[in-house]
Amino acid sequence: MSDGPRWTKQQRMAIETLDRDVLVTASAGTGKTAVLSQRCVDILADEKDVTEVERMLVLTFTEAAAEEMLARIGTELRKRYQQGRSVHLKRQMLMLDAAYISTIDSFCNRLVSEHFHKLGIDPTFRIIDRDEQKLLKSELLDATIEQAWNDETIVPAIHQLLSGRNVQSSGRGFLRNIISASEFLDSVADRQGWFERARLLAGTECLAETELADEQRELLAEKLKEQRDKLEHAIMIDSVMCGGFWGDWIRQEYVEFVDECMASCLRGDDRFTELLGEFSGPRFKSAPKGEVTREAKDLVKEVIDDVKGCLKEMAELAIVNGRYEEIVAREAAGQTQLMLRLVEMFDANYARAKREMNCLDFADLEHLALQLLRSSERIRGHYREKFRYIFVDEYQDTNTLQNAILAELAKGDNTFVVGDIKQSIYAFRQARPEIFMERLGSAGDSLADGGSLRVDLSDNFRSREGVLDFANTVFGRVMSEGMAGLGYDERAMLRAGFEYEDVASISGDGADGAVVELKLIDETESDGADPADGAVTKIERQGALIAERIRRMVGGDGGGAEFKIYDRHAECYRDVEYGDIVILMRSPGARGGELADVLQLADVPVSSDSSVGYFDTTEITDAVSLLKVLDNPQRDIELAAVLRSPVFGVTDSEFARVRMEARKERGDEKVSFYEAVVGYAEAGEEAALAGKLRAVLEKLREWRSQARRGSLADMLWRFYRETGYLSYVSALANGRQRRSNLLKLHDRAIEFEGFASNAGGTSLTRFVEFIERLLAEEGDWAPAQNEQAGENAVRIMSVHRSKGLEYPVVILAELDKQFNTQDLIGDCVLDEKSTMGLKVVDAESGGKFDSIARQVICEKAKRTLLAEELRILYVAMTRARERLVLVGSKKADKVRQIVQTCAMFDGGGVADWLLRKAKSHLDWILYGVGNHAKLVKMFAVESEGAMMNGELFAAEMVERDDLSAEVARLRELGRGSETVEAEEVGGEMVERVKEVVGWRYPWEGAAELPAKSSVSELTHRDDEFAKMDVSGALGRQPRAVAGGDGKAKASRADRKLLGTATHLVFEMLDVDGGVDEDAVRETVAQLVEEGYIPADIAEGIDVESVLAFFESGIGSTVFEADSVVRREWPFTYGVDGGRLTAGSEGEKIVVQGIVDMVIERPSGLMIVDFKTDNVRGDAVAERAAGYAEQVRHYAAAAGAVLGRPVEGAYLYFATPREMVEVELGSRTD
């Protein structure tokens, strides 16, 4: 079995326990991936009880995790094989590529592909691109609404549903809820069952008959219990700080009332509805002056006011409000039923569109896989027997649909799942951590227990003990069962499993020995900028603080590094560097960009992984504006942006002259800006400006023509090349990022051209519409990755993106960011059990009222949201290996209030109701350490409870004004305000500087030339922006997704594969007996049979274009008796470097290449190069000019090697069936 000394007792138990389900709860940094992979290796290496590779199913959450798992297993098997050269291990290694190690989506794809006939689907289906999916859904939503308006039976109901709402089908419009509901149901195992349940719940107007009423009663009882706890807290504050002045009053006026309501709720009678319906709440009792401090009174009054407000809110609940059935119930039933019907209509339209395009999405794969397993006993039995062991990674993130699939595959004693509920942070993907919790609840803790085995891993091999102590302290107080669904008990406590050197021994002189730092900025949590501060925002102030702290860490101001970190690759300690530091934010967005800007101003190299902001960049704004103008020149704003951009450089004064001329010519008549530009170009007073505008309009016409007749991606590339725009943005600040962004736009255009919904042809209009819809829905693309991402730079990323990763130094920024409750305020909310809840529009008043379903769902969603946010904080804090810095903004008096509250407790956990009042992660951290002596002393709080002591963390409160001043200083430096006035310099010195700066190495060209090259490299050597054909790479699928037997297979005839296939036909065609259509088709069939060409690609080969070549004057010479035809002719010849670049005379360059066809006739040679570019008309000549130099090299090589003169060289373009002769010049000499 496994190598013992490396594993803890719990790890060993997880690895070695067989013949039962094993549930591993692996806290952060406890080696879950290593345990899972080791268990796989041990099973595969067992030669006594042999398990073939293909009998193991390993499912991961991401493709990257699957690849890592496969690599780990392969590496370990290889090590064991090298030790004993076992034939068994060799076979396992050879078969490893056939293993079922993938994401669940990829596994479902494999399942569906293998049994397509059972499901009645086309086996050549493709997976729809996510961007295409967004566009298609947006278009189908419009079609669905149009379809509904045309149905006269529901038009009145639609009027009622949409009355008083934002009815846009994009952005935050109400109709977008139709798409949201459809996507929500993608993860529900029984989609149709959900609709049936939703209709049942919506159709019951009598509250007493609904499950929702029972569910709301249970939630109300919990809320009343929470108010009771608050009142006890108020009494405790009163006792400690006020001498018990309000205690009896609170008991009499509030406690007795709440107790009576709770008792009624639990009995099941309706007395509580009367009590809550009539509750108004007594005024707060005043205390005689001087008896109670203002601070103490405010603490008690705040709690009482909170209870009073909550009790009043309860009167609005459906089961309490006596008028609910009269005012809301009927409307709620009708509007919810109609909304459900609209969702079903949209689902049907979306399914139909996918069938027509022969596409599936990832949700389809999972639903079809479940359908397959449930509908066929034979297939289900086959896979249950096939998979002897099933492994699931990140089990806490499975949804109900995925869990249902696993249940169909499992036998009850062969499943190994590993995960950590505390790290379940994907609720937006419908992850259901309660699935794992339910299974853990019924599992045993030891081998002696029957059934499933629970194994808890808590030895952390990632972080320093100080970091773990801080995390344990915080979550031991704030992560309770009531808040997160599980308690942070002894099982969850993290224990240090890796022994680092003492902090003092690896820290520089004067360095603070604390490994955790809490840095608070004394300001409100508001996001806005204060004009008095020169519009410095809160995140910029945090950026200034973080930049200063980072520079001190790495010794950026000239000193040495503040401390060393352990390098796990080099297995030694070294100075901390920028690349060891990561800044984590809850949602970086635009604020991540602001933070990065401040760091750059402070000379801190930074790389941001923000997932938004792409379309806000200047270069992309310019490019998108150009696309919009090419689509419709009458877009005045976009036209002005394009003209004013660096592409054309029309100045503001020139704009003014254009406008003035239009007014002079047309008077008060309204003239569009486009008309004004055209008019000035035709007859403007200033000839130079008129000529400039004519050139601009002509260039726009050229690009528009290419975009409409040819490839959108080619047009974009032409724009980049002809304007030098890539070079221009590369020279700007952050140039590499800007250039990468433009290249990404080009890649997206290539992807767009491959959309299945573009089968009728790519449209510039549709691409523009696609981008506009994306922006209207507040969508975005992540900025492109650039070279700096791999350099020694601080990284900024979201907490979600950091999941599964670790860093020596972690800085948590913007901890004060308030939780996003946007999903709780929408008009439509969703839940698997309670289905759909609407804000109902009243027909008479036009007011909106919550349906009971919405009230129930929102109350549950609030708790789910807080539990998820608490887990997100856990993930963020446990990414740190050696140092953790916490940064947030909060007014000092608000911090002091939390510390004051914590100081009253006895050191145990914080009450759930207090934690639910938290608005940010910072609040929870303060509640977690609020009773530490360091904070109690810092805020001069008198503590009655037990205090924590020791050097758990360092704390600092920073003044906002100091940081605002620092940001202002950095801005000034960035603008180059600190300039030095240059003295007048003599002409001789200027000339000398010019001479030095302008000097060039005389043999620079020779230094750049390779000793050996190909023709294509030579012909594009100096072209910085030479177009790279990446279409095949973008369309390529991972092996696990593609499935099949590994033979050539494609779901559509993409251009690159089609071009290769066409070349093969030209090469393999037998020309000895003449060429006709039957000969070409026979050749194609033979190539398919022998596996050279996929069948679907073969269908796209233009047989007529092949025939057209051989019927042409040049092509027909191959049939002449005295002609010798050489196809795919390889050559190697030497070229004098001087012919390639100046200053390289005498340097011999070896050039290699392959000529498509050489026809040798008695009079000389003819060179033919076949091209399958998708070009027509005028574009053929332009494309031929680009290939001319390449063909000249072919001609020169053929002439030199074969010793014959070259009569002519030709390019044959197969798509338009055109032959273009290439002017040879001196290349063939």
UniProtKB/TrEMBL annotation:
GO cellular component, one term: cytosol
Pfam families: PDDEXK_1, UvrD-helicase, UvrD_C
Ranges for domain UvrD-like helicase C-terminal: 500-804
UvrD-like helicase ATP-binding domain ranges (all copies): 5-464
Keywords per UniProt: ATP-binding, DNA damage, DNA repair, DNA-binding, Exonuclease, Helicase, Hydrolase, Isomerase, Nuclease, Nucleotide-binding
EC number(s) stated in the UniProt entry for this protein: 5.6.2.4
Binding site for ATP: 26-33
Biological process (GO), any one: recombinational repair
Gene3D superfamilies recorded: 3.90.320.10, P-loop containing nucleotide triphosphate hydrolases
Span of the signal peptide: none
GO molecular function: 3'-5' DNA helicase activity; ATP binding; ATP hydrolysis activity; DNA binding; exonuclease activity
Name of this protein: DNA 3'-5' helicase
